[in-house]
Specification:
The complex is a heterodimer of chains A (about 180) and B (about 375).
Chain A: H1 3-7, H2 9-34, E1 64-65, H3 80-84, E2 90-96, E3 104-112, H4 121-125, E4 131-132, E5 149-150, H5 152-156
Chain B: H1 2-36, H2 57-67, H3 78-94, E1 104-107, E2 110-113, H4 122-143, H5 147-178, H6 183-189, E3 193-194, E4 198-199, H7 202-205, H8 207-220, H9 244-269, E5 278-279, E6 282-284, E7 290-292, H10 295-321, H11 329-358
Antiparallel strand pairs in B: 1-2, 3-4, 5-6, 6-7
Classes of the chains: A alpha+beta (about 180), B mainly alpha (about 375).
Chain lengths: ~180, ~375
């Protein structure tokens, strides 16, 4: 150790000057922001529920089922996604579609998000582009296992993420949901 | 009637100043550390949607502390266990009493010293109270019936002794220079000018003592970098067994001691209530200009100056607290006994020799 380091006081003063520099620089930015500057940033914090960092478009977020023009699901209940799913979290019951050209549609389409590993294979496997993971929603926690099961109606009601990177549909689960 | 009113006013001023500042320091600590570390800090507590920069957080903390379970270990000494936090807070609170926050206030023909208690031995009083504060900590450690708490209390006592010695010895130089134990006289002595323009503040006449006193003073507050009595996160301190508001009172005592040490540094080294070149009748600048000021303005300026200096000192102490890592136990002991104490003695010798050469009091 050098003598200055042994003495410690010099090092302590240098450290205090460093942190004080941070303090005054950030404080100046905070004051400038309070006075109306748009660019000054005194902190790197993103205040999460109000502010969200922009997610990558490749992000695999909560699933949604794509609708046709008439509102019925685009899914034809081919079971491809259910078959490919490594976590076996998709459960499909098929039924007849009123339009004979389409033949089938899902009666039930449940995804158990408690099991889902967000691999995105279902999206890859789908021949109809009927399931996508582009809602931008990451907040789907629940107090019960049943609460993690998303039904066909819930998945159909979701919208793709907005151009600003924010989820377009409301986060579907209130935190106190039990069923 | 006027006497009682003014006496009460002085006490209430000091009481409110210390208590409110101490309470506010929880907020200052959070916000200042956040800004130093490029964060925002606690800002979520709101009343009716108003957040005002997180100022409600101390309030929320107090409510939380007061409504928590007040747990007492089964084998703890019932009386001492409950008494300890009060002892801690009480002595931290009363220590400020003899620190002057202004010169004399003239109302009519009467003169009142702006100081909660006028003591001839003000310096000794403050140190006596600060040293007694550690009894609360030791009591807490001893009465908890917990070996970790006991060890924490012992560490606090060891730290306190090594810090108190350095505090007392480093103060000697200041007392020699200004020739009084009365804090008011010491502050008045700092109003003189060196070389005709430089205010004879303690930091200028006793720079070494300033560094020593500040270091030892921070050690006396038991906060980082000298927080090995507490060491909440890993070494477990004297208040492990405390919960609720009793725990809060120990934290509060630390903040109050910070205020007291800041007040002492201000009074002894930063000229107390002195404003440079402000005399009782107005400014007398060294280049010859004078600005006459009425008495109430002068008193307001002096009290304001004292408050500003205390706040700046608290800021500096917070800065140090959020910059340096904690000293190990042996490092703190070595710093106290082999660093601060011999240097304080050296300071006394140097000051004495200088005074002997110059003759009488300095300046």
């Amino acid at each position: 150790m050098r003598l200055g380091q042994r003495f410690y006081l010099v090092e302590a003063v240098q450290g205090v000057l460093l942190t004080a520099g941070h303090f005054f620089r950030n404080m100046g930015a905070h004051v400038a922001r309070a006075l109306g500057s748009r660019t000054a940033r005194g902190a790197v914090t993103i205040q999460y529920p109000e502010e969200r960092r922009p997610y990558s478009p490749r992000l695999r977020s909560l699933h949604r089922l794509v609708r046709r023009e008439d509102g019925s699901p685009r899914c034809v209940a081919c079971m491809m996604c259910e078959t490919v799913c490594p976590a076996r979290c998709i459960y499909i019951v098929a039924t007849e579609h009123p339009n004979p050209e389409i033949e089938k549609m899902p009666e039930r389409f449940d995804i158990d998000l408690g099991k889902c590993v967000f691999c995105g294979y279902c999206v890859e496997a789908c021949p109809e582009d009927a399931i996508r993971m582009d809602t931008g929603i990451l907040e789907f926690s629940s107090y019960s296992r049943r609460g993690m099961i998303y039904t066909k109606e819930m998945l159909l009601s979701l919208e793709p993420v907005g151009p600003d990177g924010r989820p377009a549909s409301p986060v579907p689960i209130p935190a106190n949901r039990t069923v | 009637m006027l006497d009682v009113g003014v006496a009460l006013g002085r006490v209430v001023f000091v009481m409110m100043f210390v208590l409110n500042l101490g309470g506010l320091l929880t907020w200052v600590e959070r916000k200042q550390s956040a800004i130093m570390q490029d964060r925002i800090g606690a800002n979520r507590a709101s009343i009716l949607g108003f957040r005002i920069m997180g100022l409600f957080h101390p309030l929320a903390d107090a409510i939380k502390m007061l409504t928590k379970e007040d747990f007492r270990p089964a084998r703890a000494d019932k009386f001492l266990f409950s008494l300890a936090p009060f002892v801690s807070v009480f002595f931290a609170l009363v220590a400020f009493a003899s620190i002057p926050f202004g010169d004399t206030l003239r109302i009519g023909e009467r003169e009142f010293p702006l100081q909660a208690v006028t003591l001839n031995v003000g310096v000794l009083y403050v140190f006596a109270m600060l040293s007694l504060g550690v009894y609360g900590v030791m009591m807490a450690g001893w009465s908890s019936a917990n070996n970790y708490a006991l060890l924490g209390g012992q560490r606090a006592a060891a730290l306190m002794i090594s810090a108190e010695i350095a505090i007392g010895a480093s103060i000697m130089g200041v007392i020699m220079v200004y020739g009084s134990l009365n804090l008011q006289d010491i502050v008045r002595g700092q109003g003189r000018l060196l070389l005709g323009w430089l205010p004879a503040w303690g930091i200028i006449t006793q720079p070494l003592a300033f560094v020593l006193f500040l270091t030892a003073g921070i050690a006396a507050t038991k906060r980082i970098p000298f927080d090995m009595p507490e060491g909440e996160s890993e070494i477990i301190g004297y208040f492990v067994e405390y919960s609720g508001m009793k725990f809060g009172m120990f934290a509060m005592a630390d903040f109050l001691e910070t205020v007291v040490i800041a007040g002492m540094v201000t009074a002894l080294f930063l000229g107390g209530w002195q404003v440079p070149w402000l005399l009782a009748d107005g400014f007398h600048f060294p280049w010859g200009a004078t600005v006459a000021l009425p008495h109430p303005t002068v008193v307001a300026l002096q009290v304001g100056s004292f408050v500003v200096k205390v706040c700046v000192m608290i800021f500096v102490m917070m800065l140090i607290r959020w910059t340096l890592p904690r000293f190990r136990y042996d490092q703190a002991m070595r710093l106290g006994w082999l660093g601060l104490f011999p240097l304080s003695i050296l300071n006394i010798v140097l000051t004495g020799a200088f005074l002997l050469l110059v003759g009488g009091k300095a300046s």
